[in-house]
Amino acid sequence: MSEPAVKEKKQKLSVPFNYDKYMRPHKLPHIWCPGCGHGIVLKSLLRAVEATGIDKDNICMVSGIGCSSRTPGYVDFNTMHTLHGRAFSFATGIKLAKPEMKVIVISGDGDALAIGGNHFIHTCRRNIDLTAIVYTNSTYGMTGGQYSPTTPIGDIATTSRYGNIEPPFDACEMAKAAGATFVARGTAYHTLELEKTILAALQHKGMSVVDVIDACPTYYGRMNKFKSATHMMEVIEKDGTVNVKQVDKLPPEKVQGKLLRGILHNVERPEYCQQYANIIEKAKGGK
Amino acid sequence: MAVTAHTKKAALTGNTAVAIAMKQINPDVYPAYPITPSTGIVEDFSGFVADGSVDTELITVESEHSAMSACIGASAAGARVMTATSSQGLALMWEMLYIASGMRLPIVIADVNRALSAPINIHCDHSDSMGARDAGWLQLYAETVQEAYDNVFMAMRIAENAKVMLPAMVCMDGFITSHAIENLDLLSDEEVRGFVGEYKGRNSLLDTDNPVTWGAMVLQDHYITFKHQQSEAMTRAKGVAAGVMKEFGEKFGRPYGLIDAYRLEDAEAAIVIMNSAAGTTKVVVDDLRKQGKKVGVLRLRLFRPFPFKEIADALRGVKVVAVLDRADSMNSFGGPLFNELRSALYDLDNRPKVMSRIYGLGGRDYKVKDAVEVFEELLNISKTGKIDTMTKYITL
Asked: Alpha helix (H) ranges present in chain A?
C-alpha cells in the first residue's frame, strides 16, 4: 500500500540520474581526492543542465587552472581548458562569437578571485550571459594547499603556518558589487538545493555567478584540524551556512557569522551580447 | 631531508636541492607563486622562512606576473632576489622578464622546464625557457641534481658581477630532475657565503638621500644606447661565466665549463643535447665506443650568452652532428639550439654536416634506443655524405 507513495516522492527528485549521457567515461577516474566535493558539485550541475533541456552540443564549458578546472575534461560538452585565471576572458570570446550557445565557466576561488580577479569583476560588470560556477574550497589544492583569497583569517595553509592575516573575499558580494545580475550560493552538502540554484542560474539571462562552498580535506582539512571530509562538510557547509529564505525566521545568533545560501541577488539589466548586436545594427544605419 | 650531520652528502630531489641552495644564499626577498613541477622549491623555501632559517621576506602574490613584478621592485630597491617557476608561470612573467633585464637587475630564478599549453601538459620540455631566450636573461642548464644545485651559486655570481648585472635563470628538467632523488654533495653555509659574497645593490630606490628613477621613458634619443650596453654586458657575461665556473671547480672540486664535451676528441658523429637527456646519450656513447664506433656528446651548460666559439672548437673535426632540441621554434627549420649552433659552425673550414631532431616534447621519454637510432643515422650519413631529412621529430 505504501509503495506508490514512496515512488511518487522519488519522482519529485532528479536522482537517481544517469550521468553517462553527459560524461566522457574513458576520461575517468577523475583526479579529485577521496572526500573532495567537486564530484558532488559536478553531479548537481549535470542534473541542472538536464533540467534546462538544452542540447549538450549547444553548451560550452570553459575552465582555468586548478582542481575544479579539470571538470571540462570529464564532460561531453564543447569544452575548453585554458589558462590560470583567464577562463572568463575565453568564455567572453566564445559567447560573443556564438551568442546562441550556453557558456558555463568552471573556476575555483584562487582561479576566479586571485589571478583572474580582474577578469572576474569585468565579466560581471559587462553582464554578459555566462554562468560561472566558482568552487570555493579556500585553498590551492593542486599546488599543495597555499592560502587563497577565501581562506578565513587565522586559518593555516602551507603559506600561512601561523595563521592567515589576509581577510577573505565574499565571492557573492564581490560579484554583486561588480554588476553580475544573478548571484547565488550553494554547497556540496546541499546537493539537491544546489541543483535548483544552478538551474536558476542557467536560466537567467545575463551574468550569473554561483559560489559553491566545497571542502578540500586533503590540504585545508588536515591543516585546520578537521577530523574527516564529512566533519568538514558538516562544520563548513551544513552548520556554516544558512539558507537566505530562513534568515528572517531564525534568531539572530543562529545567522551571525554564517554564509548565506540560495539566490542572493537577481535583477534584470541589458545583456552584453544583445547590446553589442544593437550597436552593430546602429552602425549599419539601422534604427 | 636526509642531510646527515657528519658528511655533506645528501639524497635530495632537484627541487629540494635548489631550495637548499637558495636557503644557503639567504636572499632578501622571495616572491612566491608555485606552479608544477617547481612547486617543491617554493614549498621547501617557505618552510625555511617559517622555521626562521633564512632572513628572507617571502611575498605570496596572486600571479607570476606579480611575482616577477615584486622581484623587480625589490631588486631595484637593492635587495638580492630569487624565485622559482615553470612553463605557464614563466610565460606569464614574459612582460616583466624584459623589464628585469632592461633594468639590469641581477634576479636569479629557477625555471623547472615544463611544456607550454595548449594542450595542457605538466611534463618536461624546454619550450618555456627557450621561448624566453631573447629576453636578455642568462640561462644555465643542468644535467643532474648536483649540477642544478651548483648552478644556483654560479648563476648568482655571474648575474651580480659588476661587468654583467643581468638576471639569470637556472634550468633543470621538470620531474626528471626536479622530482628524482639523487645523491649529491652539499656545500657548507660558510663555503656558500664565501663564494657568493654579500650583495649591495647600486642606485637603490630606498636610498632616499640619492633619489633615482628606474625604467623611465627614453625614445629615439637613448633607447638603442641602453640596449647596446645590455648587449655588451651579455657578451661580457660569457667570460665572467667561464671564470666563475673555473673558480667553483677549483674551490669545491667539481669542475664545470660553458659546455660539457664528452668523448668528442676523435669523434666522427656527435649528438648535441641539453639537460638530463645528455646522461642517457652518454650511456649510449660508452656502449657504441665499446663497439669501436667513434661517437660523442656535446652538452651546453650555458645557453645565454651562447658559447658559439667554444661550440665550434668542440665540434671541429666531427663529421656529422645531430642537434636534439626539446623544443620546437615552429619555424619549419629545426629547433632553436639547432639554428644557433649551425650558425656557430659556419666559419669552420671543414664544418660538419648538421641535422635537427626534435625530441621528448611534453615529457615523452627519450630512451637509449632513441639515441642509438640517431647515432646510427649519423654514422650512415658520415659514409654517404648525404642527409636525407634535415629536420624531423623523433620519439614519436
From this structure: 3-12, 38-52, 71-74, 87-97, 109-110, 117-126, 171-178, 191-203, 222-223, 229-232, 252-255, 272-283
